[in-house]
Amino acid sequence: MPDKNNKYFAAHKEIISVARLSIYSNTFLLFMKLAAGFFMGSISVLSEALHSGIDLLAAIIANYSVRKAGKPADEIHKFGHGKFENVSGTIEAILIFIAAIIILYKAGEKIIKGGEVEYIGAGIVIMGVSAVVNFYVSRKIMKVARKAESIALEADAYHLTTDVYTSVGVFIGLVLIQITKNPIFDPVFAMLVALIILKASYDLIKRSVSGIMDVKLSDREENIIKSIIAEHYSEFAEYHDLRTRMSGAERYVDLHLVVPKNQPVVDAHEFCDHLEKDIKEKIPNLSLLIHIEPCETDCEICRKLDVCKAPGNAHD
What we know:
The protein has ten helices and three strands. The protein is mainly alpha-helical. The protein has two domains: 7-212, Cation efflux protein transmembrane domain (Alpha-lytic protease prodomain-like, Up-down Bundle), CATH 1.20.1510; 219-308, Cation efflux protein, cytoplasmic domain (Alpha-Beta Plaits, 2-Layer Sandwich), CATH 3.30.70. Strand 2 (250-259), helix 9 (265-282) and strand 3 form a beta-alpha-beta unit.
């Protein structure tokens, strides 16, 4: 069962709900755009149908990955299943890239061969409906994704956001065809759709692969960790080898903490627990590993702590 004290797992039910919403909305838009695109003979509308088809496949992958990522650590996956989200995001980005290449090819082919666009009014209505539906669904998914810090869900929301822009672009293209009676706007706006999709693909690959490659936490989060450690500087000698990484929504941190060599193990352990609690209050979904080392020199902090622990001292 999900850990209800974990921010990500506590929102797991809501994550699954919006992941399903994405599947339902993309299925509806896919069939609507396919029907319109074939009747109209519009490459830009068909490119939007392909875009929705890729979004549907991405939504299915996202739905699967957030279910897998939500499972607790087990005997095989000791660090949990967070990287399922990173893998999912990478696959989604590759699918988007393929869709963009197909759209560019088909648009170029239509520019060369030409062709008329029919039932333009119906296409305008369908693109308007698509933009409104995707705007609502993408905002809802993005809100949950950021709350739960789900990369796969955020990727899905980002797909739908680009779909809003591309639907608006095709909408404008169809309006221009209606006004000018020139069908060249159809493949031209299809190419613009493809370029937007390529940019989305690049951003998603960059974000997803960074998690697979164990990229460190953001500078902001690392600075929070360092500042919390600095607040307790009077209780240890020094620290070093601070390392951080992301795995899906989970954060992993380890460091070496140097304590006075005569400090009892139980005191060092209690201090580490206190330090971990303070850091987790500021940064959610974090696992902290602290390696204790004895101070090899007779430093000022060691002497101070020895004095504080001396018999009869008020701090004893």
